[in-house]
Design brief:
About 65% of the residues lie in helices and about 5% in strands. The protein is mainly alpha-helical and about 110 residues long. It has one domain. It has a two-stranded antiparallel ribbon. α2 packs antiparallel against α3 and α3 packs across α4. The model has no long low-confidence stretch (mean pLDDT about 90).
Length: about 110
Amino acid sequence: MTEMVEQSPAERELGLSFANTAEWHSSEHPKEKLETYRDLVEWASTSGILSQKEAQELIRKAKKDPSRAKSVLKRTLELRESLYRVFSDAAKGNLPAETDMAVINRNFLL
């Protein structure tokens, strides 16, 4: 079984906020809040992860390499969905799936 990483309360709050960047995950019509790379960068800036200057630099780089920005967004959404499932499992008193923990650990080891 994959080992869980300890998190501070602030990290858990940020993780939950990130997991909630989509609404109605398990419905037939989920609502995505991070539709573009720019949306992701703006969320990170608003959440205090990035400074305004860092956000502007990332947007500038994304314009020069849109395929990389698209790849980063795709990987980020995969991570977000794994986090959502782990939080959902924890709320139900279930252990998280090893596949979700592997996605999370792989992204944190980058």
